[in-house]
Specification:
With 414 residues, this protein is of the alpha/beta class. The chain folds into 2 domains: 87 residues, Vcp-like ATPase, Chain A, domain 2; 309 residues, 3-Layer(aba) Sandwich (Rossmann fold), CATH 3.40.50.150. Helix content is 31%, strand content 21%. It contains 12 helices and 15 strands. A 9-stranded mixed sheet has the order 9-8-7-10-11-15-12-13-14, with helices on both faces. The longest helix has 16 residues. It binds S-adenosylmethionine (SAM). S-adenosylmethionine binds next to helix 4 and strand 8.
């Protein structure tokens, strides 16, 4: 037996001796480190043996929760004799109630995005030789999207090793790593190499990246932590480094939720496999228009699938029409330019192209985020576009198609 393996074994057997009856991670019981929900409203700080948390109903004793079954709502008494209920928060409650540095993608939008990626994993088969499913999420921020993505892929991976999680990475100062810690890290490294699906999450801010990782560990004993690789740094640098290591594209999907996203996605493109999906999440439709313009101007190998507005009360997203096109009037030789009201255009480059940017059905604009979804293609999408434009232009045909011929003859100018 190697030195490292025996160090892990003695570390694990020491942990097992501490609580002989319980497996290392029993997901059917509340455990130290979990953040639990009290009376459906209060997300408790991570459970810790011997700790109490003060609340309006009196002290909550963590020891009265640790080790209890999670199968049904737990009832405990506060120090003032109030009966309190305790259960695991849903992922939605966890994301919205946990302390944050940055605005997360709220659970309903994160779930929508994951659904758009159409992830269908099969249970891990160790003999399978196909490359793992790899998805990039940047920036990590609060960790909400990373958790939602991890939930979708976790079933593809073999059961994680029954050893403790390695110590959280520390801030940038030297720390001594003991022999058993190094052995533990090695055990996890070996297991991670066997995964069939992985979420790579990248965060520029060291403090926020570590906070997200810590937070993810406090949801149901870190249920999703093993399926996520946490990286600190600029997403562009991460992509360059990985591409240099791998020598080929390896990402099956990418979700970018960061400022100035138009500066980053062209770089990430190189690491995307053909047919991989690119999802950009932005606060405004204008940002997605910028991205579409860039794709068109640079002839990037991306084909738009859809642009959707997400907001409160829009249950399945409002579909937008965002594209650069040549209007029919202009595609005819000798035709005069369209009036300013006929397109939300930016024709400053004199190319004759206009930017269409309007909701496909509704006229009203309300708050919320926007997602644009593209697919990487080997064909230049503008080749297709040009032929469509020559065949009569996109403006008129789109209006008939999108709005069911309900009489909108002019694009609006959002
Ligand atoms: C809105 S937050 C992301 C929220 C996250 N999607 C979630 O679900 O919780 C944007 C994050 O991107 C990070 N960021 C900004 N520029 C970045 C870059 N070039 N590379 C990596 N992360 C970046 C920011 O520090 C911030 O934490």
């Amino acid at each position: 037996m190697s030195k490292a393996a025996s160090a892990v074994r003695s570390f694990v057997s020491a942990a097992a001796k501490a609580s002989p009856a319980a497996p290392l991670r029993d997901f059917g019981r509340f455990a130290e480190g979990d953040r639990v929900l009290v009376n459906d409203v209060k997300l408790l700080d991570p459970l810790k043996q011997g700790k109490t948390t003060e609340w309006k109903y009196g002290h909550i004793n963590h020891d009265s929760i640790i080790g209890a079954s999670t199968r049904s709502r737990l009832k405990i008494l506060s120090s003032r004799g109030a009966t309190l209920t305790v259960n695991h928060p849903t992922l939605e409650q966890f994301v919205s109630l946990s302390p944050r540095h940055v605005t997360p993608i709220y659970a309903q939008y994160a779930a929508f995005i994951v659904n758009q990626l159409d992830i269908n994993v099969s249970p891990a088969a160790s003999s399978s030789s196909s490359p793992p499913l790899e998805i990039l999420d940047a920036g990590t921020g609060h960790g909400s999207l990373a958790m939602h993505l991890a939930r979708a892929i976790a079933a593809a991976n073999p059961a994680p090793p029954s050893v403790p999680y390695p110590r959280m990475p520390q801030a940038n100062f030297a720390t001594t790593i003991t022999q058993s810690e190094a052995a533990l890290a090695d055990e996890w490294k070996q297991w991670k190499a066997e995964r069939k699906a992985v979420i790579h999450t990248v965060e520029a801010q060291d403090v926020w990246g570590r906070a997200a990782e810590r937070l993810i560990r406090s949801f149901r004993q870190g249920l999703y932590w093993p399926h996520i690789d946490f990286n600190i740094g600029n997403v562009d640098d991460w992509v360059d480094q990985k591409l240099a290591e791998r020598g080929q594209a390896f990402l099956s999907a990418v979700v970018l939720d960061l400022p100035d996203v138009h500066l980053h996605f062209p770089r990430v493109l190189a690491a995307m496999e053909e047919d991989a999906k690119l999802v950009l999440y932005t606060a405004s439709i204008t940002q997605l228009c910028e991205c579409e313009k860039l794709i068109d101007a640079q002839g990037l190998p991306l084909k738009q699938e859809k642009v959707v507005e997400l907001g409160s009360g829009i249950s399945d997203g409002r579909v937008w029409n965002v594209r650069v096109t040549v209007p029919r009037a202009r595609s005819r030789p000798g035709a005069s330019p369209p009036t300013p009201s006929s397109a939300s255009s930016d024709d400053s480059d004199g190319s004759g192209k206009v930017m269409i940017c309007r909701p496909k059905v509704f006229e009203r604009l309300i708050g919320g985020g926007f997602i644009g979804i593209w697919r990487k293609t080997s064909a230049r999408p503008d080749v297709e576009k040009t032929s469509t434009a020559q065949g009569g232009g996109e403006l008129d045909s789109e209006q008939g198609e999108d709005e069911g011929g309900r009489g909108h003859s002019e694009p609006d100018s959002h």
